[in-house]
């Protein structure tokens, strides 16, 4: 039972971490881009040179944050495929990720498991997000807003502070911890000798039980049959339940949890996009 509860807690931690990471990425990566002019977000001319360096950095931050959200949305599905036999997550990966990213995750990880590869990619994307932010401004406030006094109509510059970078890394560490717990339980099953021994002892007990009841209580044959059958049903059922609990991954509703993780990521980004825009004066 402890193994099942440990895996369930690990998936619960995974869900909270994914939701928190998505919220942080949306708030500190996508939200700054919402103040950009429409012609920069959806350019009509590829040769348009109106966007300056700060605007291009903000667009890069938005693209990086959205890519973080895409990887977070498929993390639950990749965990499900990694810990259940016969599961295939390639279609979900191709549907959620850009082509180059999907090809790398499917074929370019050198045999590394996809959850581990996703965690490594997320760390690189978080580092890139922090690098973009630090290059755009040197402010050290929690969430710095640098107004352009000489250009009042220009979008303001948002900076990812070291504290937010640390929070992102802590949530990523929680995801790594969740994967580590699941992998440890998968790689350390109950010793088969212990399982075989307990099953043999149970069979021996049930084999001798009719002799013991008939010799001591002089029970009627029908009562003896009912007593032994009921006892066998209860004890064999308990033994079977114990065997299933020791293999927790087929028991967990991973399909529903992976779908919930994906929807949580979508909701975090949609909430940021639907929020009223702040007006800075």
Structural account:
The chain is 72% helix and 3% strand. It contains 10 helices and 2 strands. Strands 1-2 form a two-stranded antiparallel ribbon.
**Amino- and carboxy-terminal Cα gap:** 59 Å
Strand residue content: under 5%
Count of DSSP-assigned helices: 10
Low-confidence stretches: 36-51, 138-156
Q: What is the subunit arrangement here?
A: single chain
Summed over residues and divided by their number, the pLDDT gives a mean of 79
User: In one word, what is the shape?
Assistant: elongated
Work out the helicity level.
over 70%
Specify the biggest β-sheet.
Answer: 2 strands, antiparallel
Report the count of strand segments. Answer: 2
The helix/strand order is HHHHHHEEHHHH
Rounded radius of gyration (Å): 28 Å
Structural class: mainly alpha
Strand order of the largest sheet: 1-2
